[in-house]
Amino acid sequence: MKKINRRNFMKSSVTGMAGFICNPFTDKRQGKNQKERKLIYRTLGKTGIRVPVIGMGILSSGSPALMRAALDAGITHFDSTAGQPQIHNEEMIGEVLKGVPRESVIFGTKIHLLQDYKTGLYTKAATEDEFLKKLDMALKRLKMDYVDIVYHHMVSRRESAFHEPVMKAMEKAKKAGKARFLGITTHSNIPEVVHAAADSGFYEVVMASYNNRQKNHKLVKEAIAKAADRGLGVVAIKVIRGDWKEDEIPVNPSASLKWVLQDSNVHATIPAFSNFEEMGVDLSVMEDLKLTASEKYYLKRVTSVPGLYCQGCGQCLQQCSAELPVPDLMRAYMYAYGYHQPVLAQNLIASLALPRNLCEDCSSCQVVCLNEWNVVEKIRDIIRLRDVPSGFLV
């Protein structure tokens, strides 16, 4: 079986151009016979929105040809993030969807406000006006009057899930018709945040990291079951981790996708595919969720391998004497080496306002990682991106 390195950006640049010319999924647009696909759909809780179980997350390497092909293949659920690094992406999405009936696609965008990374709580800069300003700018770039789901993004504490300025802003956005439904996303301390969303009576969709490498995936599963029982739509993220180089075990994206979709409380997932080969894998999964024997073996094998997925446990934040945002730095490392998205990693590092000399003053690192990572080694490696001109990155 051919090895697939998911999110290999260098490869996608070439594959994307070739696929635009000969991609089989563009047959519908060209008037040819397109293969009939019976995609599996689920409903996002009480929102009533029906979507294919796999959508398309669009990162900094978004390709208009690939997005058009996804539309033609029957993918109708798209997601991106509002913010400076995604400006060109949003403009691209707006161009692709121009002329496409707005009601034929489900689009979600995520709004992130400034937090204290040590506590996970919001700073004074996280205001109602700032949230609404970011949403309005995103809508303008997307050429949309509304998004289907606006997400309160990257929440890691119960208290932050109930941050009043954000909730007021979201209420106003919905009342003004700029968002149909209100969501929340979480990458760390996931069970606590998902429980908060379920208890809130406010959020209608929850987007949460969920994969078989989470040491607490049973707790995540329980929280997701509660959210689904309360009527929330559940969207899984970080399902495929892109651990090719780190583990020396070829990534099996279909196994990872099927694993999370075995949970009927997960209504959808939105992996970011970057070429037509990866999209083909997703489409095949959307037709048949049954795990093969080889996929079961793969899942069993990688469960004990730490890979590049940060558990988001936060214990490093208490251990680091320099008070560095270690989970964010580990996420940047994953973006660079797992996703093959160095631009995304560089943008994240730039947003952290880090001191100039990292990990140089400590005689030894006091961080004991749950994944048994050499944290200081990874930090010294990834921080080099800070000094690389962005024009040299792809």
Features:
TIM Barrel; alpha/beta; 394 residues; disordered N terminus; 2 domains; two-stranded antiparallel sheet
Explain what you see:
The structure is a single chain. The protein has two domains: about 10-300, NADP-dependent oxidoreductase domain (TIM Barrel), CATH 3.20.20; about 315-390. The protein has 17 helices and twelve strands. A hairpin with a 6-residue loop joins strand 1 and strand 2 (about 50). It has an eight-stranded parallel β-sheet. A two-stranded antiparallel ribbon has the order 1-2. Residues about 1-35 have low confidence and may be disordered. With about 400 residues, the chain is α/β, with parallel strands linked by helices. It is globular, with a radius of gyration of 20 Å.
> What is the CATH class designation of the largest domain?
Alpha Beta
**Biggest β-sheet: strands ordered side by side in the sheet:** 3-4-5-8-9-10-11-12
Q: If helices are DSSP runs of H or I spanning 4 or more residues, what is the number of helices? A: 17
Can you give the helix content as a percent range? 40-55%
Quick one: biggest sheet? 8 strands, parallel
Low-confidence stretches: 1-34
Tertiary shape: globular
Q: Tell me the Rg in angstroms.
A: 20 Å
Number of domains: 2
For this structure, the quaternary state is: single chain
Query: What string, H for helix and E for strand, traces the elements in order?
Result: HHEEEHEHEEEHEHHEHEHEHHEHHHHHH
Structural class: alpha/beta
Instruction: Estimate the mean pLDDT confidence.
Output: 86
